Structures are given as C-alpha cells and as structure tokens.
Amino acid sequence: MTYSITWSPKAQNRLRKLDNKTIIRIVKKVKQIRHDPKPYMRRLSGEKFYRLRIGHCRVIIKVITENKEIRILSLGHRKNIYKEM
C-alpha cells in the first residue's frame, strides 16, 4: 500500500527557491519512497522525525503509519537544516 504525501507550506516555499535540477531530484526521491519509506530514511536522534538524504539536501519527514501518510515538514542544505529543529 502506498503512502500519501503532503507538503507543509514551509517545505513548499523552500522547494520553490531551489534550482530546477535539485527540485526534480527531491520530488523524484519523495515519490520513490511512497511505496516503502523506511529503508530510505533515518530517524533523527531524540526526535519523532526522519530525514531523507538527497545529495547535499536533507528533507525532514514525519511518517504517520496509521493514516499511511508522509508529511514533508522542511528541507534545506545539510549544514543549516538541523539548526531549525
């Protein structure tokens, strides 16, 4: 069973600011994990969120297994994204 994907407004705004090549890579990877998200993600230590690594970008994700939903909370460069958490 596939998971549904929802993007937060913050993640949508950050995605729009990236170049087209990076946007395509991120969207393609997020669509790929819809079928089975666990092997592609790592749990953030001390948090209830996961991270998805796509080159230098990191995507912060919340997985709701009861609803089969993946929520994209934020994304950004690897050196800055964890400071927001």
Provide structural commentary.
The protein has 85 residues and is an alpha+beta fold. It has one domain (4-84): RelE-like (YaeB-like fold), CATH 3.30.2310. It contains two helices and five strands, in the order E-H-H-E-E-E-E. It has helices spanning 9-16, 20-32; strands at residues 4-7, 41-43, 50-54, 57-64, 69-77. A five-stranded mixed β-sheet has the order 1-5-4-3-2. Strand 4 and strand 5 form a beta hairpin. It is globular, with a radius of gyration of 12 Å. It starts with a strand and ends in an 8-residue tail after the last strand. The model has no long low-confidence stretch (mean pLDDT 91).
Task: Spell out the blueprint of helices and strands.
Blueprint: E1 4-7, H1 9-16, H2 20-32, E2 41-43, E3 50-54, E4 57-64, E5 69-77
Parallel strand pairs: 1-5
Antiparallel strand pairs: 2-3, 3-4, 4-5
Kindly summarize this structure in a few lines.
The protein has 85 residues and is an alpha+beta fold. The protein contains two helices and five strands, in the order βααββββ.
List keywords for this structure.
alpha+beta, 85 residues, globular, five-stranded mixed sheet, YaeB-like fold, 34% strand, 2 helices
SSE pattern, N- to C-terminal: EHHEEEE
Mean pLDDT: 91
CATH superfamily: RelE-like
Helix-residue proportion: 10-25%
CATH topology: YaeB-like fold
Q: Which architecture name does CATH use?
A: 2-Layer Sandwich
Q: Helix count, per DSSP?
A: 2
Strand content: 25-35%
Domain count, please report it. 1
Low-confidence stretches: none
Major sheet description: 5 strands, mixed
Number of strands: 5
Report how far the terminal alpha carbons are from each other.
30 Å
CATH class membership:
Alpha Beta
Strand order of the largest sheet: 1-5-4-3-2
Main structural class:
alpha+beta
The gross shape turns out to be globular
- What does the radius of gyration come to? 12 Å
